[in-house]
Amino acid sequence: MNAQNYWKETHTPLYSFIFTLPLFLIYEIGVFAISTSDLPLLRNGADALMRQILYNFGFFGVYGFSGTFLIGFMVAFLRQKKKLMSTAIQGEYLITMLFESIGWAIILTMTMIWFPILLMNGKDGRLLQQIVLGIGAGIYEEFVFRVILISGLATILGFIFQWGEVGKKVGAILLAAVVFSGFHFMGAYGDSPTINLFFIRIVAGIVLGGIYVLRGFGVAAYTHTIYDLFVLVKYTTSI
Fold first, then answer.
1. Could you give the C-alpha distances from 141 to 79, 81, 152, 220, 225, in angstroms and in order?
2. Tell me: the pLDDT tens digits for 62-83?
3. pTM (2 d.p.)
């Protein structure tokens, strides 16, 4: 495997789409497999927010975000496919991306272990719901707070302040991390606001934002999901 080609090609939307598609399908199947009464608990924050926005505008209804997500990546897939050095998808790249994501998740866990509170606290004792919630957070929170927000903020910062590529991306990562943290205190299922938890989630947002900028959406989504599953294992084995 050519290391230079790996870092370049796996950063593309094409590989992110293919890599995250299993997570997306598992999450959506998991949602349908669980009773309707559990859906308010199951729809993670970013997912619920985007679905509500689309619903209010009458755009695709409740399941508009799923369709928008897939359509967006299909467009990226078709556009990026022509630019790749090869049209063949390298299976070894996808496997390596999985192990890379595990490595990043371990780094995130080691970073967060210094804090007394974990990102995912297991508010609901039902294992299946928590697994699906963790997978959904990996997909939708990374899509909203990293792909959309960091990309948008970087464009705005570059336009207003005429910052260079590094400056506008660093600024976007920091701002997106603040928004990411604050969002978790919103709504009926949000956490109780505390300065410590707000700061902790900013740190997590910075780490995940850096992974997104360096390695793309696919690796960031898997890192977030694997981290949540690490936390879930710790929670379920300690009660």
1. 24, 25, 15, 10, 10
2. 455 566 667 766 776 676 666 5
3. 0.85
